[in-house]
Amino acid sequence: MFIRMQKKVTLLVAFLLLAVIYAGAQDRTVQGHIKDQQGNALPGVSVAIKNTSRGAMTQADGNYSLQAGPADTLVFSYIGYLSQEVAVGSRATIDITMQDQNKQLNEVVVVGYGTQRKKDITGAVSVVGEKEFASRPNTQLGSVLQGKAAGVQVLSSSGKPSAGLNIRIRGTNSIGASSNPLYVIDGVPTTDTRSLNPADIESVSVLKDAASAAIYGASGANGVVLITTRKGKTGEPRFEFNAYGGYSSVWKRLDVLNASQYRDLMTEMGYITDWNKYNQNTNWQDEVFRKGTSQNYQLSVSGKNDKTTYYLSGGWVQQNGAVRSATMDRFNFKVNLEQKVNNWLTMGTNVAYSRWHDVDVTDNIGVDKGGVLLGALATPPVIGIYNPDGTFTSNPFQDWENPVASTDGAQRGYKQQRLLGNVYAEVYLLPELKFRSNFGIDYNNSVYDYFLDPFRTSYGRAKQGIGQNNTDLVNYWIAENTLSYNKTFGKHTIGALAGVVAQKTKWESASIEKNGFSGGSIPTTNAGSVFVTAQNTKSEKSNASFLGRVNYSFEDKYLLTANFRADASSAFGPDHRWGYFPSVSVGWRISQEEFMKGVTAINDLKLRAGWGLVGNDQLGDRRYAWLGLVGSGSNYPIGGVVLPGNSPSSFENRNLKWEATEQYNVGVDVAVLDSRLSFSADAYVKNTSDLLLNVPVPKSTGFDVSTQNIGKIQNKGLEFLVSSRNFVGEFQWETDFNISFNRNKVVDIVGQDIFNANVANRGSISLAREGEPLGVFYGYVAAGVDPETGNMQYLDKTGKKTFMPAADDRRIIGDPNPDFIYGLTNNFSYKNIHLSIFLQGSQGNDMFNASRIETESMIDPRNQSTAVLRRWKTAGQVTDIPKATPNNSDNSRISTRYVENGSYMRVKSATLSYDLPASLLNRIKLQRLRVYVTGENLFTFTKYTGFDPEVNYLGNSTNATEANTSMGVDFGTYPQTRNLIVGLNVSF
Amino acid sequence: MQARYIVLCVLALSLGACSKFVDLTPISDATTGNAYQSASDAEAALTGAYDAFQQEYYVWDNINFTDVVSDNYYAGGDNPEIFALDLLNLSPVNSRLFNAWSQLYTGIARCNIILQKVPDITDPKLEANNRKEQILGEAAFLRAYHYYQLVKTFGGVPLVLEPATSADPGQTNIPRSTDAEVYTQIIKDLEFALSRLPDAYSDDASVNKARATKGAVNALLAKVYAQKADRDYNKVLEYCNAVISSPAGYQLINYNFLFDGNHYNNDESIMEVQYTGGAEANYGPQLLLPPSLSGDTWRKFVTPSKDLVKAFDDEHDNIRKNTTVLFENVTWTDEYWAIGGGSVPFAYKWKSASGWASTNRQYLFRLGDIILLKAEALNALGRPGDAAVEVNKIRARVSLPGVTATTKEAMQLIIEKERRLELAQEGQRWDDLRRYGRAETVMNGLNEIDLRTNQRVNYNMTKDKELMPIPQLERDRNKQLGQNPGYN
Questions:
Q1: What is the pTM of this model?
Q2: Which residues of chain A have a CB within 8 Å of the CB of B303?
Q3: Interacting residues of B127 by C-beta distance below 8 A, sequence separation 6+
Q4: Architecture, CATH, for domain B235-283+302-436
């Protein structure tokens, strides 16, 4: 009843606001409504006319009324809120939203196994809240975090609609084990957030330092991302409908040779053919790139009463990528319910179901292996798409099919259904003693289907069709029982938590592949005649843990948090199963001290310091890493019968144990000028030791690698966050800026060199070596083109020029680690119009443009970029592009020639939105209606010459070593796209 | 209110059962602790050791390392690293060297675990028919076969004779043994195998030609004594004779039958890599066979050289030429045969591609090879007349006139040519040229013209190039590993 009243009043007031009312010079009645930022009416607010003794107080409904003249200024003040002054002018109605003075400080932040007020936090925690979510449309969690939280680096490996995003919190800590953080969705840990619907997220807390993350001991070494989904908040059911649609396109094209330039080059290289047969002029980039589309619809309803809170939502998103055939779509359903059963028992559940479907395109590989992006560059323009018989065309000199054969040749798709949720009960044994039992599951069922018909592609014809069906089932559960105690005794506040956790994952996968199809009409494997593969495998992993935490604060001034977690992992042998992970952090809120009371300019000043140890057992597929495994499948036919064979597949290591990261963190939080300007800085050192490393061993052992605890990595860095409300009032301008500096160093890997990112048969690019940052580029130093011979020269180790450098002439030629990364968000609003501009960038990182090896080498009949028009042709010619050398890659070795500056700054997104005025809304019975337009990747400032600087060839590798040690390599990688989106948010 | 206390009890109980909970055994893999306990375990490990013959090295890289590097074949295809091999532009970073090295040592490791674990297995089935000793003999033979590939390709290599149990560099970084030491170990393994293996396992040829037999051991001993630096042609003769007079009854058969795909495990075969199709199929033929047989239209690998085709033509050796080489019109440019398309020869000893899933095989040993090796031994021992008799057995079956013995030197050249025509594409040519000390003369004497430039190809063959460089990637992993002369 009350709320309905309030709504009517609000609408009325809003309507009145629109009307222009003439105001006379004499005093008249001024009235209005005062509310807080949550929209609740504020009674008892003092409304004074400046420089007079006249004034009034708001009533229980938040309304006030007084007599004032047009020259008067009203001063609104209330304890705990910022005072506001408003000139009356001609207005008869002045509504005010009071800004909570300590809003940021009293904000409740979700931390591991509980919540804390922001002001009590002693560790390093970044929070990304609804404001950031609302500022632009997102389809993935990672894109929400990018550039929004200091110390959090979101590595987009490509621009594919189906691609996940890799997140690094304070650098890469590991080589052989995963460096991805742990995600906890409403208490259920997971590693894959692609299926999560960002529209359901209320807030994200990023636990960056060991002191915050140690409560997740086992998997906290890479930081923890806590995701809380939305709950009902208002008594009235609140419906929200969001929709957007948009276009995406590749923002850059690269220049390649046209038909006649290609013919000239081929003729020069000795490739001769009857060109009359190859007289097309196809622009392969036009064929492969298209206008991508996206659409997204979300509907939710939420509400709350004394006993029950609920949130229900459903949504559908579809993206057709800017590269031919790439697509994804996702359905989401979400139910969050909580019921107070009686005065000591609360039960609840959070359940999310999603159905994901995508069609991937082959990237990160050359045209000879069906790579689409390199195919678009390296396929000569002289051929069309199809031969007269409907088959795909190939390069005139080699059977490399055109890229459309790769995008359109195979029917393929990945489907995933996922149920992630929990049920929980909270029992108050005493008012201050709570027992919580939580049981969560993540059930994930996926199917990949592939069919290549036996006609249209060369490979399909050779195999007489290929049909594949792969299924994966991942079944995870977690059971947690915790006891927590919170009590304040005078000036002492104590919190304590103790609990046990058990979790287990079972993976089951099956695959079928058949060849020998009679036709193209039946895409399933039953139509094939020859089995290539038909098998299934299963594996498991389990963890058991005990955890404990104590919080103590004295007068809100001196704060202490101590954690302890003991973890057992099935990945390690019986002697090394348990790892112990303590942490402690302290805080001092100087601003609460007596001597600071007089300093009114400073609203908050807090120093934080912490130390802790966290572990890592994320060995990926190596779930029984400590055991020497003997794999099956080494079968061999003897006597005409295939006999079952096995062979050793991994080294045993009984001493394998937890990788541990020790981290120190100090930080300061400052809020000044009525908390309009706030600033945080953190400095950290992370030392990871006992690295879980797949150490390459001599192949003469019969093995490739051995998993060992070897070596140390260090990350140290600085993070700064500035948040400023530059203008408040009618015109509002807020600025958030964060910048992070991380320095990574491989301290010790027992003298090993770990190479990765082998491209184009030229050898490896990425190197992990002691004393260097992870993933430096390794190769030859190019010394220009010899004007006499036209061949590429390189420097040998003595600095002399040579055409034939030796392997040990290679050296470090680039570093893909940025000096710093940053994000800058500016939000402007004037009346109902809002503009949000988000800039994001990375500075000081090198890129290895391996695509240019494919497009500038002139060793085979690939089409090349227009750079080769500068190629050496006659003796004495001075140029930067060597001569064409068919079948010889000496001129295109891995060298400084391909290392480019990868720094970039881009307008990641800009959103202009308009809220319909209340008067109109009232007429159409809506609470809110916002329309917006968003541009993503609108402008990119970079010297990088490839399609896009924000790509990584091995970024999505499931091989942790590859993903951790190879960065900044572009090898025909699907680029980031420029997107334009128009959307609508409605609530009623 | 009692519910509260039930909850407390649950919490207390859950504290207990942890250590069992995290003790998991692999579901889909065996472990070194449980994989070697019974006779069937021993057989599975042995099958795994034979499976090493289906790795890429034995599918077709051995052809690249012997026929393509020699005067027999061009690289063909589109792989710069194989072009480099063909042109004798050998670099330690060539990844095919590292793959070959890795695969051969993978095969060796599978033998080492058998030789270590099987003696300790007690299972009555292993005692029956001396099976345990046979298994050890088969493993020893296979290990010798892989080491022979290594030593003839790279020279002395690290001798690893036991399974690696520790990744400690002190134990894994093993320096190279000398070439002589490796040959000594090979001979030791082969003598061990010879005393344990039967002439035949049964009357089923598809078993006897799949598994190591006395015949295979004798054949490898003959080749080893011929190829090692301090060669012993008396031994070569002894072991060749042991093969020829084997109770297994090896006989020359119609030359066409050897390669027509319809006569697997024939009487001439001493041992061959087994392929039966499906999951146990050979993808090699797809890489080599022309569009009419492979179904696709890309440029194929291992292209017969002008010099090889000329050698067949000069000898009027039509039967073997037609079985070894197939000409077909193509659209692509072949820099030696046809600029802008035209008639190009294809390696044709495999006949069916079957969509990357052929049953065509490579012979590990066949009698024709051993007879010519015997001729070589006889000639080396000063009996060119007897040598001619052996050569003529081989010539007679392909309807070529007999040769007559003249001098030992002339006879040597006759044998060399005969082996070339008989054994092209069978992974022998490079070993022959080096054994005869003729690699430099032959390669530097070639007159192969690159039609794109109309320049004669200069192969720059040197003594150093007789050995391949030790793969750089392995040297990065094993700091004790030295490089061969002439490479850096």
A1: 0.80
A2: none
A3: none
A4: Alpha Horseshoe (1.25)
